[in-house]
Each structure stands twice: as structure tokens, then as C-alpha cells.
Specification:
It is a single chain. β1 and β2 form a beta hairpin. This protein has two domains: 61 residues, no CATH class; 225 residues, no CATH class. It starts with a helix and ends in a 19-residue tail after the last helix. The protein is mostly helical. α6 runs antiparallel to α8 and α6 crosses α9. Bound molecules: zinc ion (2 copies).
């Protein structure tokens, strides 16, 4: 028997009346009114959230229309997509708040690690106002990729194993870095800069600047996640891990304080650092990459004093580093 709450859910979805009663027989939900043909939803396994399955199983339809099977499938897909969307939005907001809180505390405890010592950013709340647009856009792209893969519309992902997981994750991080670099270069070209100008209003970035971006900029950057599943057989768990990394590292890059200075962030190593992206905001002309600095090194867009500036932060009690020439504050 179907509980009252679930009947209400069905009523909302399909407009069922109170008089309709439903029971489960042989794995299918069958209407007690004999004249009705009822289709049972073939709900696919949803690996990331088992909890919705009962609801989806319940969503059977009293079918009187020829196209009702297709209608059921469409509604099922929509419910699955929206379920995943809600979970991802919740997770992103949670990670954003926890990461932001972590860096606010770290920044307060280590004022000497401030990168642009001559600038104060008072735009935190303005930056946060754009977060809903950014988060909804990136979630749409990310969930689209994940969902397409789960439905089998993409190339088949590799089975997750000790070698396929790390390999696909690394490949995807390298691919995304290239994507980000060239999209970023494009956004700095005159016809496209208007979509990127909002992000650059913060010349001295804060941890909240990560989501201070226009809809078009978010869409261009995050379209990667909707497309990569069509070219890379990455297991969905690794895509989730990459998104988590992307979220945390994006905020780290805007923290405004260099907490994790390390030789791995400068030549001859390929990793970037907080100083790396901070210099991008400060100068507008250098350091377009995301995780790695090698695209900037190859293309000649690395800030000429990047390596030496990062080095000044490597001592535990770093003294004030020598600052590169920053651009003028813009509002
Ligand atoms: Zn930029
Ligand atoms: Zn930025």
C-alpha cells in the first residue's frame, strides 16, 4: 500500500485524485481500477542517492494516452536530473561555506601571509551576491555531464580501479587546465572581456571572489564538465572528486593569503599557487592557468616575478615579500 505522503507526491506530479489507490504486485504498481493500464517506471539504479528510488518507483501513471510511456520516461529523467541537481547544489554550497570559513580563520591567524599588502578588499558581500548565478550554472554543467554518463549517452566510463581512477583523474585535471587557460585567454580578448570584467572587479581577491563571475563566464568555464564525458572514459566517482578539488582549489586560489607556499609551486615544478592567481588579479596580464603553470610558461604569459615572489612566502614566518607591480584598483 502507498502511504498518504507518497500519494500526495503522486498527486503533485501527475494530478492523481484521492480516490485512486495503488498497490504493488510483482514489482509493479497496479491500479485497483481494472479499466486502467498502469505502467511501472523502470527506474534505473541511482548510485549517488538511493533515497529517491522509492519515490521514483511510486511515480507510475494511469495511462490513457498513446504517448504515455514516453511521458513517463521524460518525467522519470526529469525527476532524476532534478534530484541530482538538488544534491549537488547542496554539496557545493556546503563545501563553499566550509572552505570559506576555513580560509577566513587561517587569514585572521596569519596576517603576515597576505599577498597584496597594499590593498584592502571591502567587496566581500558584493562578491557573494553573484554566488547563486555561479553555483547554479556550474551545477547545471556538472550534473549534465554526470547525468549523460549515467544514462549511457556518452562513451562508456572505465570500471573504477586502482589504476583507472588516478589515471582518469589526472588526465581530466590536465585537460581542464588546458580548457581553463584558453577560455581565460579568450575572455581577456576585447569582444569577450565584458563577460569577465565582473570577476576582475576584485583586484585583491578574497576567498569569496571565486564565485564572483558572470553567467557567461561560468558557462564557458564549466561547460568542460558537460563535455568531457563524451571524450574521456572517466568514472563518475573521479569526476565528483575533480569537482570537489576544483571547488576547494578555486577558493584557495582567491584566498588572498599564501598559506601553502612550496617549491612544488614554482620552477621546475608545474603546480600553481595562491600567489599565481593573485598576481593575475593584480596585473590582469599574467598567469591565466588553473592548477598548473606550464601553459603560462610555454606561452610566455607567466608573471616575470612569479617564482621569486612565491619563494619569499616559503619560510614559515615569511617576512613581507617584494611585491610585483600591480595594476590600479578598479571599481
Ligand atoms: Zn582573468
Ligand atoms: Zn580569479
Amino acid at each position: 500500500m502507498v502511504g498518504p505522503a507518497r500519494v500526495r507526491t503522486l498527486e503533485v506530479i501527475y494530478g492523481f485524485s484521492d480516490s485512486e489507490r495503488w498497490s504493488c504486485r510483482s514489482g509493479e504498481f497496479v491500479s485497483r481500477t481494472e479499466q486502467s493500464r498502469v505502467f511501472c517506471l523502470r527506474v534505473q539504479h541511482i548510485p549517488w542517492f538511493e533515497g529517491w528510488r522509492p519515490l521514483l518507483r511510486m511515480a507510475s501513471l494511469d495511462c490513457r494516452r498513446a504517448d504515455c510511456q514516453r511521458h513517463i520516461q521524460t518525467v522519470t529523467l526529469l525527476i532524476e536530473f532534478l534530484s541530482l541537481f538538488a544534491i549537488v547544489v547542496g554539496a557545493i554550497v556546503l563545501v563553499m561555506l566550509l572552505t570559506g570559513l576555513f580560509f577566513e580563520i587561517m587569514n585572521a591567524r596569519h596576517p603576515e601571509r597576505r599577498i597584496q599588502k597594499d590593498r584592502v578588499n571591502t567587496r566581500k558581500w558584493q562578491e557573494l551576491r553573484q554566488a547563486p548565478v555561479s553555483i547554479l550554472t556550474l551545477t547545471t554543467c556538472f550534473v549534465s555531464g554526470l547525468f549523460a554518463q549515467q544514462q549511457g549517452w556518452t562513451i562508456a566510463p572505465l570500471e573504477l580501479s586502482w589504476w583507472s581512477g588516478p589515471l582518469m583523474l589526472l588526465a581530466s585535471v590536465v585537460l581542464y587546465d588546458a580548457w581553463f587557460y584558453w577560455v581565460h585567454r579568450l575572455l581577456h580578448r576585447k569582444p569577450f572581456y565584458r563577460f569577465h570584467a565582473l570577476h576582475h572587479k576584485s583586484v585583491a581577491p578574497t576567498v569569496w571572489s571565486n564565485h564572483h563571475e558572470s553567467f557567461v563566464e561560468a558557462l564557458l568555464n564549466q561547460a568542460y564538465y558537460a563535455l568531457v564525458v563524451f571524450v574521456l572514459p572517466i568514472p563518475w566517482q573521479m569526476l565528483v572528486l575533480q569537482k570537489l578539488y576544483d571547488q576547494v582549489s578555486g577558493m584557495l586560489g582567491h584566498a588572498g593569503y599564501e598559506h601553502f607556499a612550496s617549491p612544488a609551486g614554482r620552477a621546475p615544478w608545474p603546480l600553481a599557487s595562491t600567489v599565481f592567481h593573485d598576481q593575475h588579479h593584480g596585473t590582469f596580464r599574467f598567469n591565466f592557468g588553473h592548477t598548473f603553470s606550464f601553459w603560462d610558461r610555454w606561452m610566455g604569459t607567466l608573471h616575470p616575478r612569479y617564482d621569486e615572489t612565491l619563494k619569499t612566502f616559503e619560510a614559515a614566518d615569511a617576512a613581507a615579500p617584494s611585491q610585483p607591480q600591480m595594476g590600479s584598483e578598479r571599481h
